[in-house]
Design the sequence.
């Protein structure tokens, strides 16, 4: 039974991995392809960000109905929907009309996001449950790291596959991997169902039912949600604008752009388990959020860099190091927010944990959508360097607010 639980945990981590890849693989090449078809930078940002908007609204709906089918079946269904969306997206290589390309991209991006919305509310509780209560924080940090690794390899793999096989290659490769994971999930989740009942699954455990009003009355949850949303907004701010900026400024191709994206995702993946270890050793979750937001704020100063620091000159090393530091800061803010929300004083039930996890996903997706869409618009109106003022300012405001409210929140 213990070996089966470990295998399931590895499988769940692989789902987090492919989730990250599916989310980020189009970043290095989609904006350029969209521009070739007559789409604006803002429209590219909308396509990139619509997945997060869909997830934001669909996740709580899926979480509320998770008891009808069970978390494990939810994962399989979500993977099927996501794979279908990726297969469809690959066919857009033969769509040349700008309006048709834009709306088809929206529809298929939404379909993929619906699959991810079904996966999200079940993933975190299932990951934590497989290794036992005493390893919950470690399990969450490992799962988050796998998601970060997916984000890390998504852009470079997407860029390389695009360079080798064309527009459809990244999406169809991702769909194929998802189909393989589906087969593995059906096999593993079908093993020893009589023993699974002993592990108090999400569908059968007795829980004290709480409402969203109770959850949102917690100051820890509200403050964490605000901080998480702003951090996510800054993390995805340049998803649609980094590729044209690097191409115009340094003549980067899609593959090189993918490796710049990789800097942030790699530092995120490495830093997340380190911060999980620190939390297990007693480091304050709120202090971790403040540290992460402060680091992101400072890193944004050098992303372009901002016009105020134009005397430093423009170098892709500034951009790469800035994104790398943002990955570390985002890891601190994300994991700190999730753990701080879970320590909010709500009943220690799986239902409460699922609702908090859903809020975590919603905050991430809300910030990601606003960041990707607004960042694309800011690039179009202000340019890349001047547009970086906006996330720098709101991240500084959030960091200051958390510092001033620290005593009240603790």
Sequence:
């Amino acid at each position: 039974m213990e070996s089966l639980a470990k295998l399931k945990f590895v499988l769940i981590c692989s789902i987090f991995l492919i989730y990250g890849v599916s989310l980020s693989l189009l970043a290095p090449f989609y904006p350029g392809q969209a521009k070739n078809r007559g789409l604006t930078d803002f429209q590219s940002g909308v396509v990139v960000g619509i997945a997060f908007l869909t997830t934001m609204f669909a996740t709580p709906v899926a979480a509320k109905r998770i008891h009808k089918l069970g978390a494990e079946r939810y994962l399989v269904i979500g993977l099927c929907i996501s794979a279908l969306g990726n297969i469809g997206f690959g066919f857009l290589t033969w769509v040349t009309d700008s309006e048709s390309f834009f709306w088809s991209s929206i529809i298929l991006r939404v379909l993929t996001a619906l699959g991810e919305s079904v996966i999200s509310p079940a993933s975190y509780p299932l990951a934590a449950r497989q290794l036992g209560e005493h390893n919950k924080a470690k399990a969450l940090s490992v799962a988050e790291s796998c998601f970060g690794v997916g984000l890390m390899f998504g852009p470079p793999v997407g860029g390389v596959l695009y360079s080798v096989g064309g527009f459809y290659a990244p999406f169809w490769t991702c769909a194929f991997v998802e189909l393989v994971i589906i087969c593995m999930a059906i096999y593993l989740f079908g093993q020893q169902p009589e023993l699974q009942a002993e592990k108090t699954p999400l569908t059968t455990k007795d829980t004290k039912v709480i409402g969203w009003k109770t959850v949102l009355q917690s100051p820890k949850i509200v403050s964490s949600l605000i901080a998480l949303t702003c951090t996510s907004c800054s993390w995805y701010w340049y998803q649609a604008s980094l590729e044209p900026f690097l191409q115009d400024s340094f003549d980067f191709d899609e593959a090189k752009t993918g490796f710049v994206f990789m800097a942030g995702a790699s530092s995120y993946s490495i830093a997340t388990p380190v911060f999980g270890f620190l939390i297990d050793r007693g480091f304050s979750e709120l202090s971790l959020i403040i540290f992460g937001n402060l680091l992101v704020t400072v890193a944004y100063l050098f992303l372009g860099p901002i016009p105020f620091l134009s005397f430093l000159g423009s170098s892709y090393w500034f951009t790469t190091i800035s994104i790398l530091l943002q990955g570390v800061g985002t890891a601190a803010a994300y994991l700190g927010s999730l753990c701080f929300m879970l320590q909010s004083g709500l009943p220690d039930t799986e239902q409460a944990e699922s609702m908090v996890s859903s809020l975590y996903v919603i905050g991430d997706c809300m910030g990601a959508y606003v960041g990707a869409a607004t960042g694309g618009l800011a690039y179009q109106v202000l340019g890349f360097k001047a547009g970086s003022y906006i996330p720098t300012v709101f991240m500084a405001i959030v960091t200051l607010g958390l510092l001033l409210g620290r005593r009240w929140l603790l």
Confidence is low (pLDDT under 50) at residues 193-206. Residues 61 and 390 are 32 Å apart (CA to CA). Residues 98-130 form the longest helix (33 residues). The chain has 19 helices and no strands.
